[in-house]
Amino acid sequence: MSLTGKTVTSIFYTGSTKLVQRGLGMVSMLILARILTPEDFGLVSICTLAVFLFNSVSDVGAKQYIIRAKTVDDDLINTAWTLNILIKGLIWLIFFVFTPEIAAFMDKPEIENPLRFLSIILIVGLISNPGIWLLSRDLNYKPLFKIDIGSKLISFTVVLIIAYFDRTYWAMLYGLVLQYLLPSIFSNFVCTHKRKFKLSNIGSQLRFSQWVVINSLVGFARGEGDSILVAKYFNLEMIGIYSIFKSLSSMPLTQLINPATDPLLATFSEAIREDDFQPYQMNTVLLLLLSLVVPLTAMMAGFDKEIVLLMLGDKWVEHSYIFSILAFMMVPGVLFKVLSEYVMAEGGYKPIVFYQVSMTLITLGILYLIIGGNLDEFSKTRVFISFTSIFIFASYFQFKYRLFKFLDIYLFALPMLAAGGAMLCIISLDLTAMHWFARLVLGCSVFSIVYAVILLLLVYLNRKRYECKLFLSYVVAVRNFIRRKGLN
């Protein structure tokens, strides 16, 4: 098979794997939220944060090293495997020995036994066959697809069965361990590589690994730093509420927007290489994405109680205001995704790393200073910092690349104006007397229709701008596609 064919096939398998895994993960979370309590989710959240922090330290990037190596032989693979098990084994031993100290630091002694059990995640990779890395290197993702989907289906089933009969947080812990253990076991059935302890030319792998570890730690701190502070200074109920609302509010971004924008790096890179990149391309991408993210954010914030009742049940509705606050994190998230992809396409990896490290430190510093017993204030500060951070990054972006004009601000404000008009319409209808489910369905339906009408009207009125012409052409193309499918 040609390289292009392998690439297309690999994209299909990896995309399908992500879709199934994320879908099952979302369904599992929504079902468990109705069976278990916020305290259960809080305890599991603390344990996973601690284990995954150590897991980030133990990830030496063996797979990435094998994939990027120009030539691969048994000595190279076995050296990577040896380094991997030595580091993971050492990190697991440290974690296991100091588990009481970790529990004491978090001021939650009840997490000691769950931590010891969950630490299995740190060493399950030791039984994995390193030949599995060669499958990724050769773009042979079909066996990996079978392994990952099979493992997810089994762990998903086990979690729900245990949760239904036992109704404790141990169901989630068993599921997490199985999710990491099963792929390692199954790898020995699809790979026949003979493992042998080797330390040939280990220096180059160590130099590569140190950057992988640093990058993993920065990514972990950026994504979970706020959750660590919540886990340290709030009780189990508040920890569970923050963790599940953070996951729920980010679902549209992680499940829909980010996968849809994954090709941006390659697209921007190709346009830059061919000296064919134009500012309108960036503007159009931002306008399209904001047209999706802004109304989603508005509906999540406006119908927070109804969404929480539908998705999680009445155990969580008392604190649904936290969900409405965290929903606004999607807007800076999608803006950073687009702008950072362009910076990386230009070869600017250092500015991205510097920005993420500095803003992570500043964010955690500010959150640490204001943290207290008020989760509402903490969440609002977190969102405010995110908007401030993206403003700083966008200012650097404009200073560096000069892609935007002043009138572009009005262009990007069109979805916000449309969402504001739609929300005013919902407020004027006063749906508070209706049953919560009817209010959710009718409210979201009316909001979506009014939003679409206002946005299309605003875009049409600004059709002299090339970005608006493109936007309208995409709408017409989608409409025609739906009509053709309907006729067929």
From TrEMBL:
Protein name (record): Polysaccharide transporter, PST family
UniProt keyword Membrane present: yes
PANTHER family xref list: LIPOPOLYSACCHARIDE BIOSYNTHESIS PROTEIN WZXC (PTHR30250:SF10), PST FAMILY PREDICTED COLANIC ACID TRANSPORTER (PTHR30250)
Superkingdom field: Bacteria
Keywords attached to this entry: Cell membrane, Membrane, Transmembrane, Transmembrane helix
Residue stretches spanning the membrane: 43-62, 83-105, 117-135, 147-165, 171-191, 282-301, 321-340, 352-371, 383-399, 411-431, 437-461
Subcellular location as annotated: Cell membrane
